[in-house]
Every structure is written in structure tokens, then in C-alpha cells.
Specification:
alpha/beta; Rossmann fold; four-stranded antiparallel sheet; globular; binds adenosine-5'-diphosphate; binds magnesium ion; ATP binding; ABC_transporter-like_ATP-bd; ATP-binding; ATP hydrolysis activity; nucleotide-binding
């Protein structure tokens, strides 16, 4: 499903290389956790996957279902089913969350050659998904993410994810700043999205989230490379011993 081969990427403006020969495979139906110390390049990897123009790929490949996505712009990537939830979600003043959802869903339908949703159909889908996330419908009238708490932002993101039904989801540091109740709701939402034809990449600094989203694979990122991969027991090992041992081993 997702194959990253010898990926090198740098910040366009300064030319600083952040991703330095990264290899990673995430299979269909798999939930993969990417862990690593602060500054190891986790967020940068998610930006590069999204196709943000301020990062340049200088070497290597990102294959999605066997095809390179490097030439696709962010909208094309989204249309093929890639969804990224960022560490710092964008605030969109003046656009009600419901309106944002409508535009996003209909843009995706258009890219697939489908008609826009009728208003009743849209409302029905949004109500159902919001209900599954135990989300207050009143929130949908507020501008997206403006003044939302950390938990509300994450919930809004999971709602988008449920409605857009992506094939590849990448969630960056979904757990930062969340209290335990919000964390459980996010984990619940992600678990509801698990399916044999969907891959989910969960980027996290701490093991805590992985108590609720049990990963099929764990990869440790350090200095822009995957230095160790394993199953969920690797996350427990990291929780207990920290990153130092693994970094030394890799060196
Ligand atoms: P993580 O998410 O793992 O904490 P990041 O991807 O945010 O790591 O950052 C990786 C490294 O890249 C850090 O050393 C950070 O300082 C550096 N970095 C990030 N953005 C830029 C930028 N625009 N210019 C230069 N260096 C950057
Ligand atoms: Mg960081
Ligand atoms: Mg980060």
C-alpha cells in the first residue's frame, strides 16, 4: 500500500536535509506507529507525504499502491485517498465546520466523478459520524478549529476522516495536549476506522496512545531514518528504557 524507499527530503527555503534515507512499508489493513525523539523528523515526514510545497524530495520514492505520488499536488493526493491529520490543525476563520465538511466531501466526490451530496444526505452522514464520536452538533456551526480545545480539534479531525473514508490515514502526534478522555475518543475513532483495505500511520512521541490504539507494527525514527522496526512490544520497550539504547544499537 505505502512504500517509502530511500527517501531524502529537505526544507525548500534553507536546503536543510531532514529526511535522510528513510525506508518504510505499511501494508493494507495495518496500523503502523511511528515513534521517535523530538526533532527526529516525524512531522516533516507527514508534510512530505502530504506534498507540502515548502519541502523538497531530492532522492528516493514514495509509492502508494505501487505508483509514485511525488508528482501529485496535495489535492490530487487527497483525491486518491490520502488523509493527513497534522500536529497543529489549521484554523479557518469565517468557515463553519459544517460548510468545510460539505466543501471537502463534495470536492472529493467531484474528483471521483460523483454528483455533490444533497443537503439531507450530507446532514444524515455528518450526524451519524458525529454521533459515533459522541460529538456535539453545535460545534459544527463554529468556524473550523477557531477557539477549539485540543480535544475538540482532534475530534473534528477524526470526524473529517470518518466522512472522507481515506485509504491511507496519517495522524501526527494526535495525543499531544489531550486529556485521557479526549485521548480515548480519538483512539476510539481511529479504531472505528480500522479496516482490511485501509492503512493507518500513527505518529507519536509517547507510548500512552498505543495502549488504546494497538499497532500492528512500530517503527522508530531518528535523524530522518527508520532505525528499528518491530511489533507492539517495541513500544513497551521504549516506554521502559527510552530511546538511548536503540539509538546506540543503530549507531
Ligand atoms: P519531530 O516531529 O520528530 O519532532 P520535526 O519533523 O518537527 O521533528 O523536525 C525535524 C528536524 O527538522 C528538527 O531538527 C527541526 O528543527 C528541523 N526543522 C523543521 N522544520 C524546519 C525548517 N523549516 N527549517 C529548518 N529546520 C527545520
Ligand atoms: Mg516535535
Ligand atoms: Mg512533530
Amino acid at each position: 500500500m505505502l512504500e517509502i524507499k530511500n527517501l531524502h527530503a529537505r526544507v525548500a527555503e534553507s536546503g536543510v536535509e531532514i529526511i535522510r534515507g528513510l525506508n518504510l512499508t505499511v501494508k493494507d489493513g495495518e496500523v503502523a506507529a511511528i515513534m521517535g525523539p523530538n526533532g527526529s523528523g516525524k512531522s516533516t515526514l507527514s508534510y512530505v507525504l502530504a506534498g507540502r510545497p515548502d519541502y523538497e524530495v531530492t532522492e528516493g520514492e514514495i509509492l502508494y499502491n505501487g505508483e509514485s505520488i511525488l508528482e501529485m499536488d496535495p489535492a490530487e493526493r487527497a483525491a486518491t485517498g490520502v488523509f493527513l491529520a497534522f500536529q497543529y490543525p489549521m484554523e479557518i476563520p469565517g468557515v463553519a465546520t459544517m460548510e468545510f465538511l460539505k466543501v471537502a466531501m463534495n470536492a472529493q466526490r467531484k474528483a471521483r466523478g460523483e454528483d455533490p451530496l444533497s443537503i439531507p444526505d450530507l446532514l444524515k452522514r455528518v450526524k451519524q459520524a458525529a454521533g459515533e464520536l459522541d460529538m456535539d452538533m453545535g460545534m459544527l456551526k463554529r468556524p473550523l478549529n477557531v477557539g477549539f480545545s485540543g480535544g475538540e480539534k482532534k475530534r473534528a479531525e477524526i470526524l473529517q476522516m470518518k466522512l472522507l473514508e481515506p485509504k491511507l490515514c496519517v495522524l501526527d502526534e494526535t495525543d499531544s495536549g489531550l486529556d485521557i478522555d479526549a485521548l480515548k475518543i480519538v483512539a476510539d475513532g481511529v479504531n472505528q476506522l480500522r479496516s482490511p483495505d485501509r492503512s493507518i500511520v500513527v505518529i507519536t512521541h509517547y507510548q500512552r496512545l498505543l495502549d488504546y490504539i494497538v499497532p500492528d507494527a512500530v517503527h522508530v525514527l531518528y535523524k530522518g531514518q527508520v532505525i528499528k522496526s518491530g511489533d507492539k512490544s517495541l513500544a513497551y520497550e521504549l516506554e521502559e528504557n527510552g530511546y538511548a539504547g536503540i539509538i546506540e544499537e543503530a549507531a
